[in-house]
Give the backbone structure.
Amino acid sequence: MYAVVEISGKQYRAEQGKSLKVDRIEMDPGSDISFETVVLLSGDNGVKVGTPYVAGAVVKAVVDEEVKGDKVIVFKYKPKKDYRRTQGHRQKYTVIKVQEIIGA
């Protein structure tokens, strides 16, 4: 059984027992979180597609940790004008572990 859930405007495929790396959620590690924005639910008795969300479907998860992504280097320059700027960025992510998927 799996579900496609929308978290912070992005869609993720959630399976029971699997970990997801989503955009940062300000919650402490070990705390429970549930998502009711289930777009698609697939199980033994077929596929349910929401309009826009599946009514009564919930994905329950636990916050594992907060991690940083790979460093991205932003380099700007203008040729022949002696203009160069370097900037780095590391995105923060939250790792959540899916505990169960409750379908309607």
Notes: The chain has a mean pLDDT of 94. The CA atoms of residues 43 and 73 lie 42 Å apart. The two ends are 13 Å apart (CA to CA). Residues 2-102 form one domain.
